[in-house]
């Protein structure tokens, strides 16, 4: 999550009540800023004190300095001289501050240092021996977040990044509850949980040992305490008399419509999101499972499990009904589908083991293409952006198959060992990761897309049938029939970390994530006296 505090402050920061009138400090609505331009050069800014963790030689010399090339010239604040040993942490603390959940950013420039360089902000600071710190170090080519408790430092997360002395970098921190995220220049690199300091504390600046460092544009603001979920349930969209299991969903972004494959009811359902109610429907379908919306023609494609057929429907608004067009038989159990826009092909998982490509003619007919045999019935699968590779869950064989779509063959088979019933899948193509949901036991597995090597395996919600990956937010949503949606933080290089479990409904194991609108739809079947409905959620800012 990239944090641009100056731009976002008005959206989610509350008034601090720190009506600071000291030079160089401005109290903005929702936060306070220190630019150090009105303070006396050669002195500490008004309202600041200095301290040390594990003192050694002598306190570092902190002062306001002239710097016409600073981000907000003409002045900065920093350490101009220090000869401390490696164990000493040099602190400057803003005395009249108190933050619990906060957004924090500061511009940092490393000047020099033989033992250490760089630095960063501190927060939830109780005293010189208890606080959190996020800092970068050009000598070590890393960016890290620590807690310092009772004078002892403990690393919480680390990332490799090249930084240079003499160059300004913006260090950005958000902490809500026990959840910490840190970025450099808008690039999210660190994410962790820690409960050492849960109450309010001061903010400040930090260097280590002999590091000579300058700081500018320190901006801080309190985030309102959040008792609500990251996923806010907006509404329940009624589906009337729909009965039985509900399978997958598709979305029309222009018309703001959902299309639902109501498998147990044998129907294709249209939901008008603007009106919040069900629209047209097609009945007497033989167990519709997979579903795609093709915006170019305003068509919906459905795959039927009972007879293995695939059907096209004209769903253009203004017509009294959903109009059936062409169809094609694939043998049996036509299931998940993906659309390849580059080649205008539909890939269908079906039968006792195959992935087949279908073309579409201009009249709405479906044309069979390449067929790639597999070792068992395929469930969820993903294509790369170029549609040259596919990864397929084959639970009957206990494996994930990697396919070359150009040659039409399986190139690798990766066994899952003790993990079974691998149904849902999501792809992080840029990061080279597959996210796979297994039901026995309920685990979220991360695999390398090139080698099939298992990168991580963590517990997740039971009876999962859909997984969605949001790359910019580093979030993964796992929807399970156990009645919950698990939200994971999936920062590259780290194991998935579940950051929240959100209640949905029993049996609600399929859904659809709309990333550009931060909306999640979860299909809840009729059960326990409640009618079928689609639950709509919105991801809160920063969730």
Summarize the structure.
Helix content is 1%, strand content 54%. It has one helix and 44 strands.
Description:
The protein is 1% helix and 54% strand. The chain is an all-beta fold. Strands 1, 2, 4, 5, 7, 12, 13, 14 and 16 form a nine-stranded antiparallel β-sheet that branches. A hairpin with a 3-residue loop joins β27 (345-350) and β28 (354-360). The protein is elongated and about 80 Å long.
Tally of helical segments: 1
Residue-averaged pLDDT, rounded? 91
Rg, please? 28 Å
Please give the alpha-carbon distance between the first and last residues: 9 Å
Oligomerization state: single chain
Beta-strand segment tally: 44
Q: State the major sheet.
A: 9 strands, antiparallel
Write the layout of secondary structure elements.
Layout: H1 5-12, E1 25-28, E2 31-34, E3 48-53, E4 61-66, E5 75-81, E6 89-94, E7 102-112, E8 120-127, E9 130-137, E10 142-149, E11 152-160, E12 168-176, E13 179-184, E14 187-193, E15 202-208, E16 212-222, E17 231-238, E18 249-252, E19 257-262, E20 267-272, E21 277-282, E22 288-294, E23 299-304, E24 309-314, E25 323-329, E26 337-340, E27 345-350, E28 354-360, E29 366-373, E30 381-383, E31 389-394, E32 399-404, E33 409-415, E34 420-428, E35 433-440, E36 442-448, E37 454-459, E38 464-470, E39 475-480, E40 484-489, E41 497-503, E42 510-514, E43 519-524, E44 533-539
Antiparallel strand pairs: 1-2, 2-16, 3-6, 4-5, 5-16, 6-15, 7-12, 7-16, 8-9, 8-15, 9-10, 10-11, 12-13, 13-14, 17-44, 18-19, 19-20, 20-21, 22-23, 23-24, 24-25, 26-27, 27-28, 28-29, 30-31, 31-32, 32-33, 34-35, 35-36, 36-37, 38-39, 39-40, 40-41, 42-43, 43-44
């Amino acid at each position: 999550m990239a944090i641009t505090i100056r731009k976002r402050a008005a959206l989610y920061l509350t008034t601090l009540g720190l009506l600071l009138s000291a030079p160089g400090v401005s109290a903005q609505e929702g936060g306070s800023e220190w630019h150090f331009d009105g303070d006396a050069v050669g002195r500490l800014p008004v309202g600041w004190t200095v301290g040390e963790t594990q003192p050694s030689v002598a306190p570092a010399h902190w002062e306001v300095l002239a710097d016409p090339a600073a981000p907000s010239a003409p002045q900065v604040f920093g350490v101009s001289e220090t000869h401390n040993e490696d164990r000493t942490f040099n602190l400057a603390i803003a005395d009249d501050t108190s933050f619990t959940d906060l957004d924090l950013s500061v511009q940092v420039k490393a000047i020099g240092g033989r033992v250490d360089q760089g630095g960063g902000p501190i927060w939830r600071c109780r005293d010189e021996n208890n606080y959190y710190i996020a800092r970068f170090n050009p000598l070590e080519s890393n960016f890290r977040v620590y807690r310092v408790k009772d004078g002892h430092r403990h690393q919480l997360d680390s990332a490799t990044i090249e930084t240079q002395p003499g160059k300004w970098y913006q260090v950005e921190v958000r902490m809500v509850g026990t959840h910490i995220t840190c970025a450099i220049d808008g690039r999210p690199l660190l994410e962790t949980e820690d409960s050492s300091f849960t109450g309010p504390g001061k903010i400040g600046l930090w260097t280590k040992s002999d590091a000579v460092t300058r700081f500018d544009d320190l901006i801080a603001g309190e985030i309102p305490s959040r008792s609500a979920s990251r996923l806010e349930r907006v509404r329940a969209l009624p589906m009337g008399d729909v009965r039985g299991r509900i399978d997958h969903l598709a979305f029309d972004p222009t018309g703001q419509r959902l299309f639902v494959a109501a498998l147990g009811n044998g129907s294709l359902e249209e939901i008008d999101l603007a009106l919040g109610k069900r629209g047209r429907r097609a009945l007497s379908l033989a167990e519709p499972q997979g579903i795609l919306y093709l915006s170019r023609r305003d068509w919906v494609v459905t795959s039927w499990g009972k007879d293995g057929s695939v059907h096209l429907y004209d769903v253009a608004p203004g017509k009294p009904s959903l109009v059936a067009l062409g169809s094609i038989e694939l043998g049996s159990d036509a299931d998940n589908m993906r659309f390849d826009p580059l080649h205008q092909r539909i890939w269908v998982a079906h039968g006792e083991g195959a992935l087949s490509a279908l073309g579409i003619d201009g009249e709405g007919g479906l044309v069979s293409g390449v067929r790639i045999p597999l070792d068992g019935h395929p469930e969820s699968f993903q294509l790369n952006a170029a549609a040259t590779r596919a990864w397929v869950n084959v639970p009957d064989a206990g494996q994930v198959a990697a396919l070359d779509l150009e040659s039409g063959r399986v190139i690798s088979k990766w066994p899952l060992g003790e993990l079974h019933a691998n149904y849902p899948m999501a792809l992080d193509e840029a990061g080279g990761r597959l996210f796979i949901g297994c039901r026995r036991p309920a685990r979220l597995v991360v695999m390398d897309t090139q080698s099939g090597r298992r990168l991580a395996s963590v517990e997740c919600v039971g009876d999962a049938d859909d997984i969605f990956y949001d790359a910019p937010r580093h979030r993964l949503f796992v929807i399970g029939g156990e009645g919950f949606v698990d939200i994971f933080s999936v920062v590259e290089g780290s194991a998935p970390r579940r950051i929240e479990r959100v209640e949905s409904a029993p049996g609600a194991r399929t859904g659809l994530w709309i990333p550009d609108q931060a909306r999640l739809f979860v299909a809840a079947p009729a059960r326990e006296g409640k009618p079928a409905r689609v639950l709509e959620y919105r991801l809160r800012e920063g969730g």
